[in-house]
Amino acid sequence: MADIYVFIGPPGVGKGTLGEMFCEETKAVHVSTGDLLRQEMAAGTELGNKVKGIIAEGGLVSDDIVAEMVEGRLQKDDIVAKGCLLDGFPRTVPQAEALRDILKRTGHKMAAVVSIEADQQMLITRLTARRMCTNKECGAIFNVVAMPPKTEGICDKCGAKLYQRSDDTKEAALHRLDVYAKQTAPLIDFYKKEGKLIRSTSRDLPAEANYANLKAALKA
Ligand code: AMP
């Protein structure tokens, strides 16, 4: 029986970066449903081709598809041994209900749900300025305003090219924030009622400072 943590938060809040830091420290496995779906798209699988259009527009992939993908992942040996952080799942109340059933079936335990919150304008600025490393092994994330790479378009860590996610254009980013408010924000009440919710606010500060806040909230 392993501990499962969930990070909920609007797009651009830094869930991915904070999740990396959390997993590095706790050795939990980082499971990002967005990353899993992008891997499917990059590999050109049937699933990848099915979800490509939805993701580019900033919409949500169907609950059943994502829940099945997560259940498969949670049964793997690394997670059974070390537990995991779910980043980007659940994103709707039906997904939270599905996760409750998945945990019963797999025997894992929900350790905590962290809601990471931030100012809306900061999120729009961050999303449209975000650049990702094309090297999947590296996965570094930059921000052309707040954390630009030393050479434009090139990853500082591994030298690979950077790219902008198709859903980080202003139009898609606004749509994703709207989808978050309508479909994912209700999860905050869902987990509050279950007594699992921990809240943390991210500000326009270095990731280390926001991570320290998150850790303090988890310990409180
Ligand atoms: P992310 O990397 O978490 O921002 O996810 C990128 C995109 O993948 C989202 O905008 C959705 O289209 C899709 N996605 C990721 N996780 C989920 C999920 N739990 N449910 C539905 N769609 C998802």
Notes on the protein architecture:
33% of the residues are buried. β5 and β6 (141-143) form a beta hairpin. The protein is of the alpha/beta class and 220 residues long. α1 (15-26) crosses α10, α2 (33-43) crosses α3 (46-57) and α4 runs parallel beside α6 (93-106). It has helices at 15-26, 33-43, 46-57, 63-74, 77-82, 93-106, 120-129, 170-184, 186-193, 207-219; strands spanning 3-8, 29-32, 84-87, 109-117, 130-133, 141-143, 162-163, 197-201. The mean pLDDT is 93. It has ten helices and eight strands. The protein is 51% helix and 17% strand. The strands form two sheets. A five-stranded parallel β-sheet has the order 2-3-1-4-8, with helices on both faces. A three-stranded antiparallel β-sheet has the order 6-5-7. The protein has a domain at 3-119 and 184-219: Rossmann fold (3-Layer(aba) Sandwich). The longest helix is centred in the last third of the chain and has 15 residues, at 170-184. The site of adenosine monophosphate has 18 residues, from α2 and α3.
What is the topology?
Layout (H helix, E strand, L loop, with lengths): L2 E6 L6 H12 L2 E4 H11 L2 H12 L5 H12 L2 H6 L1 E4 L5 H14 L2 E9 L2 H10 E4 L7 E3 L18 E2 L6 H15 L1 H8 L3 E5 L5 H13 L1
Parallel strand pairs: 1-3, 1-4, 2-3, 4-8
Antiparallel strand pairs: 5-6, 5-7
Helix pairs in contact: 1-10, 2-3, 4-6, 7-8
This protein binds adenosine monophosphate (AMP).
The site of adenosine monophosphate has 18 residues, from α2 and α3.
